[in-house]
Structure to design on (454 residues):
């Protein structure tokens, strides 16, 4: 891809970005280390494309989006004004500081306006609804919600078949940037992809990298300069204890133990249920569901529809299952579940949160997750985090209550229930029980007890 011949346009591409400039794919995903010159290279690529007229002669419109508009200003506005200053004498050129918008001159008649480039923030993404785009760069995409791209930006590109570049420095395997990169690796015909590590790029001197490494934690250095998404674990409660190699095809095994469920019962938020099965020394996590705005009957029906529903053993419920609900005639949710046909419900002991977390951390290395049916749940476990105190700049010992809490709490309930069953928590009942109390008053015969119904 050749730079335009207009006098004063002085962009010289770095060799590391020539593949991007010369790409033929409509979509691109770039993960690059800090100070690689990514934003500068992407902006100039957009400028060159904006200065190239469409074959049909239609006026073009482009956007560069950052997580916030102030961030878009700091990332690209000075660069964009500097790189387009050579067009200031053209009648078609206009730079609007207030709106962070530049209109380039029409290459065929520089006294007339040509393409427009906007700098926008994701918090103002709604302003793009109804607009068309010939191309868009999403910078620092790890901090931008999925829906902004999928529901606002992508439709804006549709009628022009515009191009899209997703870029940034990765923060988590669950952020939009990393998930897009994984997609791009699987579809090279339509996606250009690049992951640029500082140790490979040669952009920053070796001695500078060594100095940076001494001044940062190893995790910070690995994430920021080596693009190592697996290193991002600070504040994550369960992520360091999860093994990606233990995520595979793990269906229900008819020869294994009786499947059992573990619940978290939300009130105004989501409910979550895990289903596990012990096969030898392995704990196989074979199913998961989480939904909001659904009653208990919805989850009972979901369990009934499992192919293994006739073999269910225990159902592990949290201690608040026995709280009476005024809106339900004073019934407890335990009673409601029994009325729906559930049997062998076991109430898991109420433990301090740190002990629940310890149980979850001990269980995770023994777990094998069914890849196809537990994706949402695994994401919750990876992102279950301690709350950050911005004033003290430290993480608290209390988990953050967010969209990941319900499935994570259900898993902790599973972990505490299993430890109680195996005697690891010092069962004081003289036998193996799941929880201190159960609704039917019968002790379990071994680890699990078969019962009719689910």
């Amino acid at each position: 891809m050749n730079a335009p011949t207009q006098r004063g346009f002085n962009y010289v591409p770095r060799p590391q970005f020539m593949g991007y400039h010369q790409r033929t794919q409509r979509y691109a995903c770039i993960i690059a280390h800090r100070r690689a010159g990514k934003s500068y290279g992407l902006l100039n690529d957009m400028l060159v494309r904006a200065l190239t007229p469409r074959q049909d002669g239609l006026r073009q419109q482009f956007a560069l989006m950052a997580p916030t508009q102030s961030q878009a200003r700091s990332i690209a506005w000075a660069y964009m004004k500097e790189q387009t200053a050579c067009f200031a004498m053209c009648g078609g050129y206009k730079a609007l500081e207030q709106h962070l918008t530049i209109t380039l001159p029409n290459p065929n008649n520089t006294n007339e306006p040509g393409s427009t480039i906007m700098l926008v923030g994701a918090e103002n993404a709604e302003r793009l609804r109804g607009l068309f785009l010939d191309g868009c760069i999403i910078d620092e995409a790890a901090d931008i919600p999925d829906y902004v791209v999928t529901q606002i930006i992508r439709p804006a590109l549709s009628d022009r078949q515009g191009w899209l570049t997703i870029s940034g420095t990765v923060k988590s395997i669950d952020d939009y940037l990393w998930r897009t990169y994984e997609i791009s690796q699987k579809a090279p015909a339509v996606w250009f992809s690049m992951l640029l590590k500082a140790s490979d790029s040669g952009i920053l001197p070796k001695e500078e990298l060594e100095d940076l490494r001494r001044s940062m934690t190893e995790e910070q250095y690995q994430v920021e300069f080596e693009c190592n998404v697996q290193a991002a674990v600070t504040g994550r409660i369960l992520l360091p204890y999860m093994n990606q190699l233990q995520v595979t095809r793990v269906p229900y095994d008819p020869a294994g133990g009786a499947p059992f469920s573990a619940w978290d019962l939300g009130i105004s938020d989501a409910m979550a249920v895990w289903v596990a099965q012990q096969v030898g020394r392995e704990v196989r996590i074979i199913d998961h569901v989480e939904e909001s705005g659904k009653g208990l009957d919805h989850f009972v029906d979901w369990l009934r529809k499992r192919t293994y529903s006739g073999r269910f053993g225990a159902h592990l419920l949290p201690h608040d299952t026995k709280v009476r609900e005024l809106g339900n005639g004073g019934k407890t949710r335990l009673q409601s579940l029994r009325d729906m046909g559930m049997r062998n419900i076991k109430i898991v002991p109420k433990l301090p949160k740190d002990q629940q977390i310890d149980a979850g951390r001990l269980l995770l290395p023994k777990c094998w997750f069914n890849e196809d049916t537990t994706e949402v749940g695994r994401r919750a476990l990876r992102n279950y985090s301690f709350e950050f105190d911005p004033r003290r700049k430290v993480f608290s010992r209390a988990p953050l209550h967010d969209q990941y809490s319900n499935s994570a709490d259900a898993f902790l309930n599973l972990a505490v229930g299993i430890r109680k069953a195996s005697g690891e928590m010092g069962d004081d009942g003289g036998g193996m029980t799941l929880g201190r109390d159960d609704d039917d008053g019968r002790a379990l015969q071994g680890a699990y007890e078969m019962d009719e119904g689910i």
In short: The chain is about 30% helix and 20% strand. The CA atoms of residues 39 and 75 lie 7 Å apart. The two ends are 64 Å apart (CA to CA). The first strand starts at residue 27 and ends at 32.
